[in-house]
Amino acid sequence: MKRCVIFDLDGTLADTSGDLLAAANVAFAHLGSDARLDPAAPVDQATALTGARAMLRLGLSRLGEIDEDLVDAGYQPLLDAYGTNIAEHTQFYPGALDAVARLRDRGDAVGICTNKPEGLARQLLDALDAHHHFDALVGADTLPVRKPDPEHFWETLRRCEGDKARTVLVGDTDTDRKTATAAGVPCILVTFAPAGGSVADLRPDALLHHFDQLDSALAVVGL
């Protein structure tokens, strides 16, 4: 079986924060709320990569107490707005697709394990003409569970037909770190996402400062 490298998507392979924040602002307008998020603010960028509800809560918190009914009401409008303009600002991080291509040229399996809904994740990869680079994609709603539940990771590995003893999770958040710990696999965290300055505090098995250094990071974790 193949060595397998499984990546998170948002904040790891691609910076999706601009389009996510724009969608959140559309949702706030839909709700009639004065809340807005700033695509140039690091805190807002980092929050965007943790999910739709987190963005809604952040914006509403700046107006006072968070109303969870408003969070629920804004969730679907946010997803709808995001799906309409899913790749206007999104870009892969420098060297990401080149690194994936190198892995596959060597015979490695490469997958995506993301807490983004599967349909939106596939739509994004199609919009960026990148779907063919990956052997499998498992999204937030593909299974009854999602990260940090390790079954989310294991299902991605199975779909990649990868070797359980030679696999790693590459991510950018505490959720990815917890997923790798629960699965008992090495974890590499990237430092170039908006929250990258603090990921060392999560004690990953290796840090990745640029995709040009992926081979070195894999060597650090024994792959």
TrEMBL record:
Pathway: Organic acid metabolism; glycolate biosynthesis; glycolate from 2-phosphoglycolate: step 1/1. One of its GO terms (molecular function) is phosphoglycolate phosphatase activity. Keywords: Hydrolase. It is an enzyme of class 3 (hydrolase). One of its GO terms (cellular component) is cytosol. It catalyses: 2-phosphoglycolate + H2O = glycolate + phosphate. The keyword Phosphoprotein does not apply. Pfam families: HAD_2. GO terms for biological process: DNA repair. Its EC number is 3.1.3.18. PANTHER family: PHOSPHOGLYCOLATE PHOSPHATASE. Belongs to the HAD-like hydrolase superfamily. CbbY/CbbZ/Gph/YieH family. This is phosphoglycolate phosphatase. It comes from Jannaschia donghaensis. The lineage of its organism: Bacteria, Pseudomonadati, Pseudomonadota, Alphaproteobacteria, Rhodobacterales. The gene is gph_2.
